[in-house]
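Researcher: Please generate the 3D structure of the following complex. Treat every line as part of one assembly.
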Amino acid sequence: MSLFDIFNVAGSALNAQTIRLNTTASNLANSESTAGDASKVYRARHPVFEAMMDDTATDDQQAAIGVRVLGVVESTTPPAMRYEPQNPSANSNGYVYMSNVNPIEEMANMISANRSFASDIDAINTARDLLLKIISMGH
Amino acid sequence: MFDNIFGIHESALLLQGERLGVLTANLANADTPGYKARDIDFAAVLGQAADEQAPLPLRVTQAAHIVTQSADMPAAELKYRNPYQASLDGNTVEMPVEQAAFSEDNVRSQASLMFINDTIADLSLAIMGS
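Model: Done. Output below.
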């Protein structure tokens, strides 16, 4: 692990946090989506992160070499029903299924992603400053 | 003669770079479930490097001679961080702790760089004589 590796490690984290922000935006945009069928209604999506490990290193030398998105899972919370007979997507009983997005949870997720993104940018800037100083060493 | 002019700062800088990488990995995995934060016991590893550096490197004049290393990258053993408060998903990264360690390492690196730069300035002053 050298100073140059920091760009890869923090870069992978920036990528992962961007995917998280994307799913949050998608969830918030669809928080009011409705459908007449429980299986067709929008469900909140969340990315699952996994640490990328250097398999060649022994355990006492092993630092993560980044983070990746293992997959995006859909929330299993049952969607709420609402009586809206005038809604074009209502079923025969006049009910529509609401998406199971929890806007408060999404906002908290967004702030957390934002904070993590900022600290990763900080790490990149620090590594860059140090490398520039090392390059100009002795001048 | 110039083998050891930078003293401990040469290996210190290498170790600080290494530690910065480990801390960045912690920051990157701040939201990864089950990730265990790691760190280098800086004082222990640098102390070991200082001990190893104390004897002067042996001069090699024949192929059969054993080459001794000076100011080599100290073997950095990674330890697991003890979290102040364990989180439910098994992640032990605590953002304030990591960021504090990161800043500390940054300042240490800058200090080492400054010492090295000053040594170079002193030497060039001695060489140029002006």
